[in-house]
Structures are given as C-alpha cells and as structure tokens.
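Readers of this paper often ask what the protein records in our data store actually look like. Below, we set out a record of this kind in full and without editing:
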Amino acid sequence: MKHATPHRFPIGIDPGDIDFMGHVNNASYLKWVQAAVLDHWRALAPSEEISRHLWVALKHEITYRKPAFLEDDVIATVLLEKVQGARAFYQTVIRRGEEVLAEVKSSWCCIDADTKRPARIARDVIQRFFPAGESE
C-alpha cells in the first residue's frame, strides 16, 4: 500500500503552551496534531468538500520523546495512512530539526457538516491525498 505525500505544518509555540516545568505542556501536542491534520485536509480537499465535511478526532496515541521549549522551531509532519469508510488514520511526527519530540497515531471521523453524522469521502477526493490512487 502506498502512502500519501507527507504534509509539513510549522508550529508556533505560545507562552500559554509552557507548563510549570518550563517546557511545552503535553496537552499542547494534541492541539498541534489537530491543527496539522485539519491543515492537511484544507490544503488538498476541494473547497466544496471542506465546507460540506468536518473532522472529529476519535483516538490519539502519543509517544513523547523529548520536551519542546518556547523558542524552538517545531514542525509537524502529517502522513495520511489510509481512509476506510468515514474514518481516516494518520501518523504525525513532531520534530525540532532532526530531533523527534513526539510521535502520534490518530484516527478521525468525517462528519457531514449539516447532519453531524458520519460521512464517507468520495473516492475522487480521497485520491487527491494519495498520488498513486491507493487509499484502502
């Protein structure tokens, strides 16, 4: 199975992300992953699909490797692994330079913006995310 092209998302660290220990609070990583995955969707999906569909997180599994600090330049690299029905499975790696700060596996559900019920994404839209056309 071929994977989608990685999507790079620069992360801005705000003073509010810093915890009592002087580094980024673990909860901020979830905020970053959500922003990166949604940016990936907005970057590749047609505008009518963006307005028609919303994404909600179903599960995040985070492995923290190293702390991040206020002045760090951090990038999240998002990789869409597969789409099954209304669900999408992502891997996101958060780095400072070559150093891996965190690895996140997450699953998301696409929902219809009007009905708020799960919605499948059309095959032609999915293919925009997988250059070779493989998605399932």
Observations:
- The domain at 7-126 is CATH 3.10.129.10 (Thiol Ester Dehydrase; Chain A).
